[in-house]
Design goal:
One of its GO terms (molecular function) is N-acylmannosamine kinase activity. The chain has twelve helices and 13 strands. Helix 3 packs across helix 11, helix 5 crosses helix 6 and helix 8 packs across helix 10.
Length: about 325
């Protein structure tokens, strides 16, 4: 069985051909941002390169959002400066195949259920810790989708109600506002303004608004006092956000991916296990790194094409 898997990110657009549950070939380009139709045009071109005979069964898409699955579109892509991006109709019209669309984190959790570690589990959550915080959930064996496909935005759950820190969505106190990678330099600068300890390399970078996630975790490993303290603060924020997930979904296992976690699990996971009990009355579920690493969303898109959940299929009727 052959399927096409598509991962639409704010930076890269990836299209892959899968056969018998494995990736055979892939094309990656920078995500087009010329106009709303440029993405589907690029996808069509890439699919034709990967499968000139068009002998695949279906197409799965894991994408940034928010989405409107009733219309088969990305409703808004602020990092691309685009809105109302058509996906389903252009691809159906071109290839006459079923096209299934999901948010990227939703696709990622389905990857664990269909192709990954969670084949025999019915209550699981996927979290991405990257430029933002994304969440996908399967509860009682059912993928949680919502009326338009946006029921998974737990990165915008509240972790500090009296915060002055504004999230990218425009609201205050959100998990992503503190711990999303794109916000870490701003958080680091505020942290530095209140810092009473040693003025280390991390401190000076933070004061200049230049302490990136990569540099932060690198310096923490080198025992930079400021960076270690900030990482500890971020782990408490993550623990608070994950406790919201535990309260909402009661998962058996939580899989975590995204670049921040994949490359820094040693500085994050032990402290999640330490701090979650401060907030969660339901204990700490098993926490594991996601199965497919940087390919998690791509495998998620393939999983949706191979075995589309009924909660996604209903939007194609």
């Amino acid at each position: 069985m052959k399927v096409i898997a598509i991962d639409i990110g704010a930076t890269n657009l990836r299209v892959a051909l899968f056969e018998n549950n494995s990736k055979i070939n892939e094309i990656k380009v920078k995500t087009p941002r010329d106009d709303p139709n440029s993405i589907s045009k690029s996808i069509i071109k890439m699919i034709n390169e990967l499968s000139p005979n068009r002998d695949f069964q279906s197409i799965g898409i894991g994408t940034i959002g928010p989405l409107n699955l009733k219309k088969g579109i990305i409703e808004l892509a602020p990092n691309l400066g685009l809105k109302n991006i058509p996906l389903r109709d252009p691809l159906v019209n071109e290839f006459h195949k079923d096209v299934y669309i999901a948010n990227d984190a939703m696709a990622a959790v389905w990857a664990e259920k269909i192709l990954g570690d969670a084949k025999n589990k019915n209550d699981l959550v996927y979290i991405t810790m990257s430029s933002g915080i994304g969440v996908g959930a399967i509860i009682d064996g059912n993928l949680i989708v919502g009326r338009r496909g946006n029921s998974h935005e737990m990165g915008h759950s509240l972790v500090k109600f009296d915060s002055n820190l504004v999230c990218g969505c425009g609201k205050i106190g959100h998990w992503e506002a503190y711990a999303g990678g794109k916000n870490i330099p701003k958080v680091a600068k505020e942290f530095a303004n209140e810092w009473k300890g040693k003025e280390s390399e991390g401190y000076f970078l933070a004061k200049e608004n230049n302490l990136t996630p990569e540099k932060l975790y690198d310096l923490a490993r080198k025992n930079d006092e400021f960076s270690k303290s900030l990482v500890d603060f971020l782990n408490i924020i993550h623990a608070a956000g994950i406790s919201n997930i535990i309260a909402a979904y009661d998962p058996e296992v939580i899989y975590i991916g995204g670049s921040i976690y994949l490359y820094n699990e040693d500085l994050i996971k032990p402290y999640l296990i330490k701090y979650i009990p401060m907030f969660s009355a339901l204990g700490v579920p098993e926490i594991k790194m996601c199965t497919f690493g940087d390919d998690q969303v791509l495998y998620g898109a393939a999983s949706i094409a191979i075995n589309p959940p009924s909660q996604i299929k209903k939007f194609n009727l």
